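User: Run a structure prediction on this.
Assistant: Running it now.
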Amino acid sequence: RVYNQKVKQVLEKGFQCLILVPEIILTTQWVDDIKEDFDIEPIIYHSSIRKKAREQIWRQVNLNEVKLIIGTRSALFLPFTKLGLIVIDEEHDSSYKQEEQLIINARDFSIVRAKNSNCMVILSSATPSLESSYNVNQNKFAHLKLSKRINNVDLPNIRIIDMKNQNEIISKDLRKSIEDNINQNYQTLIFINKRGYSPFIICKNCGFSKICKNCNTSLVLHDYLNKKSFLLCHHCNYKEIFKNICPSCKKENSFTFPGFGIEKISELITKLFPKATSCILSSDTIKNTIKFKSIISDIISNKVNIIIGTQLISKGHNFPSLKTVGIINIDNVMNDFDFRSFEKTFQQIIQVSGRAGRKNLKGEVFIQTLQPNHPVIKLSTTQNNQRFTEWELKSRKESKQPPFVNYISIIFSSKNENSVVRYSLAISKKIKKTFNKLQIFGPAPGVLNKKNSYFRYKTLIKLEKDLNYQKEVKKFLVKIKNPKNIKLYIDVDPINFI
């Protein structure tokens, strides 16, 4: 609402505005609000729009006939002629980083585009990225805070549930809260950031596990509830029908499904609360805007008792009857190998907690964890961004991690593993010889060593914040010429280390 007011002021002066969003499907609810409250008719733009419609929008933007665009990162390249404001909504979201083909961070590029257009840029988030908070500390960004929730509604009460003493996936406390909400006609949101039914399948007779034929990663079991089961690779989208016959030992019905994804949680909820109405909200189940709008409408109308959602549901929505949020499996995110894992954990908890008690309700949040005394979990209960930011920035500074240094990831990939090993070694040796002040790690196989039939090796460069030295490194890297059978990607400030 704050930045929409600014958008209106800029539009009234005859300038164009761009609002970037991480997921276009998340905008359906508040695009209608913009029309109703501000009498502004936005144009939606993203890469899935048909070519003819995209061409028309390009022409209208170029002629200054379109004033307000709401779009995903591709909208940043529209030919604005009179740009007056760029807004990056949920600026912390990793979806703004494109990691295939053209590697670019749309949030950072937005700042460059705003500078070149001599216009304001607003980075909007309830949980700002550490990079943005660091820039505030360096007086590069101005910081505007909302000290209270809309209508002075209290923040939800966050409780930590120690799962070491629990034998069930859904804790006793959370189950009791769900029962109370059903009786009082309130809603509950169960948050688990894991798609599918089971993250992998394994034969309990011989130990065989299904691996993607294109990537060295497990296939995820999907749609097991509807008995139309299939196995899916979440990296290359390879798909095959699931048959419960082990191809190794030929035994039938021998596969077991360890771990749990959103579909298994949905199955459990149906067993625990057979009379309740529930729905799943994830990128797998919401394939089109019409279906998504229908489910969101049912939730807002309080026709659904229990919502089970992935990250798709953690932001951008206002559900007036939602009282309780249950966060499960957060330990997976917190114990990831990525140096940003603590930041991502804190952001997820705060974002999804913000769905509870938004309208005349005292919300409650249950964090189920095996590490109840972990500093990130403890800091999350305070819901204080500044305290977490200070704590995490101190840790990053001591360990010399971004934003105090820069990382450059060089990714070598080829269908011939021997070729990519030799070439990555040769280039890495050359870098080490040329720049003795750099910390260079690798080359080493990527965590996902084989992706989409390509073998991947990585070299990671740790670079001090020295502008002249950075220019020298850049000059060297852009001159690297790779053989035809090897693809070379240079990712500055990588988000994903897989």
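The chain is about 30% helix and 20% strand.
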